[in-house]
Every structure is written in structure tokens, then in C-alpha cells.
Amino acid sequence: MTLDPVHVDGIAQLAGRVGRTVDDRDHGEAAEAAWEFLDPLYDDGETVLEPLGEHRRRKVAIEDVALTESPFPTQHGLDAGTINPTTFKNGLVLDVSQAAMAAEPSDVDLHRGRTIVMTVHTNDRTAAPGEEGWRGGDRGYARRRVLHAPRVDRYEQTVVHALALYLAESEHALAQAEVVDDLLVLDGPLYPTGLLKWGERDPELRRLLTDEKQPRDVLANYLDLVETFVRRDVPLVGFVKNSASKAITRVLREKTGAPWVDDEAFFRRVLERLDGDGEPKTDALTFTGWFRSRLGTDAALGCGELEVPHERTLDAEAYEVTFFVVYDPRDDLVYRVEAPYAFTRDPDLRADLTTHLLSEVAGERGPPLAVGKADELARIDRQGKRTLRRRIEREFDTDRQRSYDDKRWSALEGML
């Protein structure tokens, strides 16, 4: 331990002084007032968030809903994992992502399939990488590709990570779409939020979204994905485990002085249930109704605010992001479920999706089973990352660029 007990006590005292300046006892009333602002939520006179159906919160007994039969006889989940951005001494920065789809009930052949993308960035002006197409592998079960990232002066790691992750995910979903009969659940948002946030982070990243082919092609894939599943009449949803969105609370803060740091914290306060002693009740899942969103990154693709070289085949509203929020008090976790309005404008289908996702959260105590399977297939564990990096070092005939943190953390790992 790097801090002596006396220092821990001192820091705790500092925290106590800060805590005394913040009284969250009135946050419950603030949450109730803010909740009413969502029916609907306006910003500069425009509707940016509106309920689909009745604006209310509901609860369902965990034991009861966990045993509910799913309206979808089969379910598929999809996830993509990466080795994380890596810089090499020869100036190359790359990330590698693999995407996999899982089925419930299981399908061994489907589980073997992979889409693998290596995204590479270099600022060497003498290098002139050409376009590389898809290649096969693993007796036809795998598709592999090198993607050359557009050159940037900063954010190289951000660029290679997002392009590898979202190209692998979207290409695998499109390639395997025909095997999905009843429901596909993406592990993460409906649209590539990590890519869409470029527009909010920096002018250089924003330029990539409007001027460069690689990110625009990836964004077009997600529009194609929505169109594919609407054409096949098979619902497509995204299950978001960790949402960093602040879009709703940003508007609420202007209207009500909302104290929450992000949307997740707001919905947690809105949905939590406390007993007479102020302790959380853990017998039921609580959840919101569905909302139609034109806020933040939801509007970029969903409302067409970001121009993408893709000829849309559906009506404009069909692409809009809709969502509902689930709170699981057993682990004090908030989940957001997203779907295109093309599906959720049907009240019966909306109800079926709600029932299925609540049953899965209750039974799995987390993401749906198909998503959990896909996560296991796509995840690249720590040893796998080390092995891949060493192999790449040999292929490049150079070493990974290391920092003092690598030495410190590798020494710590050796102690564990």
C-alpha cells in the first residue's frame, strides 16, 4: 500500500469536509421534477426527446420476469474486441479488432466465424499504402483486412481504435445478417458512438468524418445494417452496458439546474427505490418507457445531421434512435437498450422487446445471454494481446514503443 493509515484517515477527513457541502437529500425531488421535463424535452423550442406511449416508470419482480418466455425463439448477439492501440518504433500505430456473432441456442459453425480488421496509421510521407481488400482464412470461417487510417497529427490511437472496432463489428453483422431469424443484439450502441463523438472532440477529428473515406464508409455500414434488418423484418437492438452520454442532463441542467454528471446518474436516481430506512429495494427491476431521441450523437446518423455517402432506402424517421433504460438494484447498474424507430414505432413489437430484455437482465444479472456469448468469443485476453503484439513486432522487425508505465505495470503483474 502506498499510503499509510494516517494519510488514508487524512484524505477521508478531506472527503468528509467536501461531503458536508453537498446535500443530496433533495436530489429525489429534483429527479422527480426533471423526469417531468422529459414529456417531451425541448431545447431551443425543438423537441429533442419524446416518449413513445405513456410517460411513466414501471417495475417488475425479478423472479417473475426472469421466468418469462421470450417472444423471440432464437436470439443472436454480436461483439467486437481489440488489442488496444499500439505504437511501434518504426512510427506505425495500429489496432486489431475481431468481431464474432453468437447464437442462442448455440451454433458452433456460426461461433467459429470471425471478421478481423487491422487498422494502421503512419505519418511517413514516403509511404503510399494502397487499398487492401478482404482476404479469407480459417477454411472460409474468417475474413481479414488491413485498413490504412487517414493521416492525423494527433489522436492516432483514437483513430485506429475506432476504425478497427467499428469496421469489424459492422462488417461481421452485415456478413452474418441472413442467419438471424428473430433478433440481433449488438453489444453496445446501435450506431458507432465512439466514431460519432469525433465531431464533438476536435476540429481535426471532425474533418475526418466529413472528408475521409474510411470513417464515412464505416458510418454507411450502420445505415445499411438498419436497412437490412428492416427489410428482413428482424428486430435489431443495441445493449449499452456503460453509457457516457451527457446529452439529456446537459439540457436538463439549463432548465432545472440538474446536479447529475451524466445521463446514467440521472436515470439511476429516477429509477432507484428506497425503503423506509433509505436502503435500496432489490426485489424488482425498474425501467422507463421508450424514448425517441434527437440529442447528441443520436441525431448524427439517426436524424441525418451528419452527411454520409449512402443512399437511404427508408423514410427519415426509421433511422432515429429510440431507447429505454433499465435499473438493476442488485448491482446498482443502469443499462440502456437502443433500437431504430423503424421497429419501436410498432407498440406490440416495442412491448416484446421490452419483455425480452427485462427477462434477460433479470436472469443473467447483466447483458443478454447471446451478448455474453459473443463477448466471450470476441474478447482478446491479456495473454492473447501479448502474443499478438510479439508476433507483430517480429513481422515489422521492430519493437513496440514502450513507456515507463509498461515497466511499472509489468512488474506489478509479476507480483500478482
Overall helicity: 40-55%
Kindly estimate the percentage of residues that lie in beta strands according to DSSP. Answer: 15-25%
Number of helices: 17
The main β sheet shows up as:
13 strands, mixed
Order of helix and strand elements from N to C terminus:
HHEEHEEEHEEEHEHHHHEHHEHEEHHHHH
Q: Name the overall outline.
A: globular
Distance between the termini: 14 Å
Radius of gyration from the CA trace?
A: 23 Å
Indicate the low-confidence ranges by residue numbers. Answer: none
Mean pLDDT over the residues: 91
Number of strands: 13
Q: Which structural class fits the helix and strand makeup?
A: alpha+beta
Report on the architecture of this protein:
β4 and β5 form a beta hairpin. The protein has 416 residues and is of the alpha+beta class. Strands 1, 2, 3, 4, 5, 6, 7, 8, 9, 10, 11, 12 and 13 form a 13-stranded mixed sheet that branches. The relative contact order is 0.16. The protein has 17 helices and 13 strands. The protein is globular. The mean pLDDT is 91. It has helices spanning 5-20, 27-36, 62-66, 108-112, 156-175, 193-196, 198-201, 203-211, 213-231, 247-256, 263-271, 298-302, 341-344, 347-364, 369-378, 382-396, 404-415, and strands spanning 41-43, 46-61, 75-82, 86-87, 93-104, 114-121, 135-137, 142-148, 184-187, 236-240, 284-293, 321-328, 333-340. The two termini are 14 Å apart.
